[in-house]
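Quick check before the chapter quiz. The format below is the same one you will see on the exam, so make sure you can read both the input and the output lines.
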Amino acid sequence: MTSKRKRYSREFKLEAISLVEEQGRKIPEVSDSLGISKKSLENWVYKYRKEQQGITPETGKALTDEQLEIQRLRKEIKQLKLERDILKKASALLAGDSLNVYR
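Here is the expected output.
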């Protein structure tokens, strides 16, 4: 019997990796909750970590200068969005508190 290999979108893989890398969940826990094999998720996380180090897992070659710059800029954008969101929440809280002061 031949079984078809299941294909996952890049977005799905990145979301699964995010659960492991950013939320600190364990690979077996994430693989069970998403219904994927533990080995597949381990491979995705391994490749992701290598890419973060500037190494393409398939070839083992270092990324080009442009690829490294894109990677750095993406990290910076992510950090700036996080900081922006924190500032939005803080300003909303402060605006709410200032309304209570004048009552």
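If your answer matched, good. The first helix runs from residue 10 to 21.
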